[in-house]
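S.,

As promised, the PBG run. Input:
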Amino acid sequence: MLQRPRRNRKSAAVRDLVRETNLSTDDFIFPLFLVSGSKKKIEVDSMPGIFRFSEDLMLKEIEECLKLGIKAFDVFPAYPEELKDSLATESYNPNTFYLKALKTIKQTFPEVCLMSDVAMDPYNSDGHDGIVKDGKILNDETLEILARMSLAQADAGVDILGPSDMMDGRVGFIREELDNAGFIDTSIMSYTAKYASSFYGPFRDALDSAPKFGDKKTYQMDPSNSREALIEADLDVNEGADYLMVKPALAYLDIIQLLSQNYDLPIAAYNVSGEYSMIKASAERGWIDGGSAMLESLLSIKRSGARIILTYFAKEFALMKS
Ligand code: PBG
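Predicted complex:
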């Protein structure tokens, strides 16, 4: 036998030498859930180890994460029902707790890379990512609201806006509004290929943001399709996106690979709530080793071509490595 592949696996030192993919805290954006008020740290039932923080305790959490080497955070707000309406007006109210917290985070820790979410669902009484009329989700009218919330978030000091709504034309629309207002350095990480997935369930629990009727299939992508991801990616590149994101990650590794082979912008993947909770739930039952399942799935996402991973495992990974 001339070829014995096992020779390159014979010891940990040799395996370290030939390893093609390495994970580091540099790779991660840590999603955080924000609630109004103070002194609140409430665990999300369907996401063990993940909390909804009020601003004061979120600042502590960020400080802890920074010490562990995590430098990028994506903050999502949970709004009470009484602040929601059909036009998501609270999303651009300059005094709303989300925008105030974003500003405080950026002022307290100017070195962090702060990302925010652009979509109507947390503030929309219909629970959809766009304006609802006669049971339909209106595209072009929604762009105006997305642009308003983008400007408000940019003004609060956010580094990267994350339009997660899947309306057509929103990246270009937002880019133009940002540029006109002088926010030329505010980046856009487009949710380029965001699929209508059942893996978002725990996130919608965390934010009480499930759609009040129907589903999101007229705007989020059909899990059966990959060619459509190329159409979306072409549009995003031409409309001025700085990053292309695939979401979810684990059931869509082929899409991550497709985009990373076809585009030169950095590719991000969102390892979503359901993907986190599946591992947590089976680890709690003793059915799998949670820590190594975490590492293996994060590795698979990076190996398939994602440069950036948004993951609820970011802190756990950092603690494991520290
Ligand atoms: C909202 C949004 C969702 C997620 C991120 N932004 C939910 C949805 O589209 O219903 C899901 C994230 C996760 O599951 O971790 N537009």
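DSSP finds eleven helices and twelve strands in the chain. The pocket of PBG is lined by residues 117, 119, 121, 129, 164-165, 200, 203-204, 272-273 (CB under 6 Å).

- D.
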